Amino acid sequence: MLDIKLIRENPELVKKGIESKKEPSRVDEILKLDEERRKLVFETDELKAKRNAGSQEVGKVKKAGGDAAALMAEVKAIGEKISENDSRLRELDAELDGILMYIPNLPHQSVPLGSSAEDNVEVRRWLPEGFSFENTEPVLDHTTIGKKLNILDFERGTKLSGSGFPLYKGKGATLERALINFMLDYHLANHGYSEIFPPFLVNRDSMKGTGQIPKMEDDMYAIEKDGLYPIPTAEVPITNIYRDEIVAEKELPIKYVGYSACFRREAGSYGKESKGFLRVHQFNKVEMVKFVKPEISYDELEKLVNDAEDILKELQIPYRVLMLCTGDLSFSAAKCYDIEAWSPAEQKWLEISSCSNFENFQARRANIKYRREDNKKTEFLHTLNGSGLATSRLMVSLLETNQTPEGKIIVPKALQKYTGFSIID
Known about the structure:
single chain
């Protein structure tokens, strides 16, 4: 959520930032409501002072044995007006809050302007030694090789739950579990994270805190009877650990990593991009979340991206890093890097990680503050998160880049101690 003071003092800057994300700004509407609210607060404060003075005068008149009826009626009328104002203030607060919940975070000044993914900027790419895009060796796509080796069964997954719910079998299930355990262990041992195993269902306040609700509510699964939501990412429960809390400065930065299953309706996402793991409603992901002081958050973003990259280097997966333009930036992010792995069969890059700095946008929504040691002042901290990594499209690249001409899969060395086997045939 944006600070109303920022909108009030920099309306044109805020309008420009919102519009660069292709969202309606509603800044003028916010300012109008804010002005009415501030005038009403001032008027109500004056009325309360007048009522207090009147009440004191009533007491004096009564003490002197005089008739205070007229004064009492005046004080009563002031009280009724105060109640009326308070009721209107509650309405204005609810209206303002409702609008602000739909206002996106502003892009950081370093984010390139653009209207779509076509305007994203490639920052770097990494290719394993000996890798070549010119390699013309035929490669089976992940759905075909998965079916041939009896390690993936998308048809039965559809029978069980509907399209977009994959079923892993045999060595495929073991490989998926190995990926998750490897990534968790690597982040813990090499990047200094602490492990979290979060709930997979959260309440509405948690979804609001990280920005999924109300803006993206149609993309969320919901258990209406219980008021719970299956999480779209572990970012939601992990970030909300500190909702409505104040963290001591000496505790920062806090770095958590956690595994979760992820659930996304993604209404309208159908067609040729939906086959196999390319578009799923349930997938597994290891998530990195950071709580940091504002002055270091952009340094921490670069480290977050590097942490995700290290996983791909260990797995020897070709990848590239993109800086997203304003028009492709998510609702809550101020700056975001996407990491994409290469799919030999699809002959294209597939997004497997997004690493974002939300500045204080989520912290303001979730009321997460920290207390500075020097002056004991509290302020909103900055939150960051990144996939480290999502397994679904990573599995696409892994299966396709590690195929042999005979149609077998060579398990990357980094995973072999987790799988207990080096080849899938």
